[in-house]
Design goal:
- This protein is an alpha/beta fold.
- It is built from four helices and 15 strands.
- The chain has helices at residues 3-17, 31-47, 51-65, 189-223; strands at 67-69, 74-75, 80-81, 87-89, 94-95, 100-101, 106-108, 120-121, 126-127, 132-134, 138-139, 144-145, 150-151, 159-162, 167-171.
- The strands form three sheets. The chain has a six-stranded mixed β-sheet. It has a five-stranded parallel β-sheet with strand order 1-4-7-10-13. It has a four-stranded parallel β-sheet with strand order 2-5-8-11, with no helix packed on it.
- It comes from Candidatus Egerieimonas intestinavium.
């Protein structure tokens, strides 16, 4: 693929998911664009068994961009890493097409597995800022992982996951996360339950105050 064609394709991907970009030439300033060029080169060396050369390229890219992608990772088309600082992608990670990662995301291993040690992200997955996905399981297509979540087990397709540990809070038959890049306002049933308890507690307190006032009125009436 020619550099200009690659530039245009990357611009289309970024424009779709980042409203801050205005010119195709701005793509050159995006850490995601620069690190992916180096990753593709390092990955070719890795597949040929040139491991030191592959790691040398990837580590230089990590120092320059703040994004660490192991050259052994398998990455599809249209990956977009927004901002990118602190992103780590492990050796046996598999990433499908049109995946979006935000800053501080870790796709790591749990230290207990051998062979396939890192997660698989299917097409159209979005992983929000600071989320950690740890282990050799699969995140189903079209799923969203909420900011700061820690995911330790498999996620079915078309799901929204939040919390520590991550839990599915929403599942739909058809949903493409790239239609909405909002990775902040995700549902949180625990928070909803807490609000309900607080509301019910306030109602009980108010009722007790009313009963106390009624008792005082009755006592005054008896004395009178």
């Amino acid at each position: 693929m020619s550099f200009i064609k690659h530039l245009k394709e990357e611009f289309a991907v970024i424009k779709e998911r980042d409203p801050a970009i205005h010119s195709p030439w701005e793509v050159l300033l995006y850490p995601s664009f620069r690190v992916m060029i180096k990753y593709r080169k390092a990955h070719k060396h890795y597949l040929k068994g040139h491991y030191f050369r592959a790691r040398w390229i990837s580590q230089r890219a990590a120092r320059k961009t703040g994004i660490e992608i192991h050259p052994g990772a398998t990455i599809g088309k249209g990956l977009f890493i927004d901002h990118g600082s602190g992103v780590i992608i492990g050796e046996t990670t598999v990433i499908g097409d049109n995946v979006t990662l935000y800053q501080g995301v870790t796709l790591g291993g749990n230290g207990k597995e051998t062979g396939k040690r890192h997660p698989t992200l299917c097409d159209n997955v979005m992983v929000s800022a600071g989320a950690k996905i740890i282990g050799s399981f699969t995140i189903g297509e079209n799923s969203k992982i909420g900011a700061g979540s820690v995911v330790l087990s498999e996620v079915p397709p078309n799901c929204t996951v939040v919390g520590i540990p991550g839990r599915v809070v929403k599942q739909e038959n058809v949903r493409v996360p790239r239609d909405s890049m909002d990775h902040i306002h995700l549902p949180d049933p625990v928070q909803d339950d807490l609000r309900t308890l607080q509301r019910e507690n306030s109602q009980l307190v108010n009722r007790l105050l009313d009963l106390e006032n009624e008792m005082r009125s009755l006592k005054k009436a008896v004395k009178a």
